[in-house]
Amino acid sequence: xxxxxxxLKPIPIADLRPTQMTLGLREVEEKRRQWRELxxxxxxxxxxxxxxxxxxGPKGRHYVLDHHHLxxxxxxxxVKEVLATVEANLSELTKASFWIYLDNRSWxxxxxxxxxxxxxxxxxxxxxxxxxxxxxxxxxxLRRVGGFAKDTTLFSEFLWADFLxxxxxxxxxxxxxxxxxxxxxxxxxxxxxxxxxxxxxxxPID
Length: 206
Known about the structure:
Blueprint: E1 5-12, E2 22-23, H1 25-49, E3 52-56, E4 62-64, H2 68-76, E5 81-89, H3 95-104, E6 131-132, H4 134-144, H5 156-165, H6 170-175, H7 177-188
Parallel strand pairs: 2-6, 3-5
Antiparallel strand pairs: 1-5, 3-4
Helix pairs in contact: 1-2, 4-5, 4-7
């Protein structure tokens, strides 16, 4: 990506538009808990260090490229504004051309909670409209416990979520998340996962 151009004026969270359809609400809840622990003493400092990367779309609206979980957590905690950075100004494009551009740059993820691609119009127009994908929560937790490395690839956790979705049954997820995570840790080290961003399984011996 090109260098970020900081937007000094805070952006209302209510004005931010997502570039994906889902997130992991379990991960959102964890970020809400973390925010409550530091909000009173270190809230402004935290927000200053976590600027939200956006792209300007039609009508000059800010579309979020990353940190959807953090923005949703702050929204649910009643925070009204965040600082943003602008990756690209595409405000002169038509809406159709805008989404095609984002899609070709892998700057959007129009897939539902089942991992099925949808029309761009299905992407919600506000952060509060994002739906829960439990497998995205599983992928996020898998990364935190060392199942794979943090990677700069946008939406990389969704690629892991789809990998896990095909191998761990929903009833395992709903009955015992820790058991599902244990299964995910085993799967993450197999060669079946070696195409995924951040894979850190064992290297085969030549």
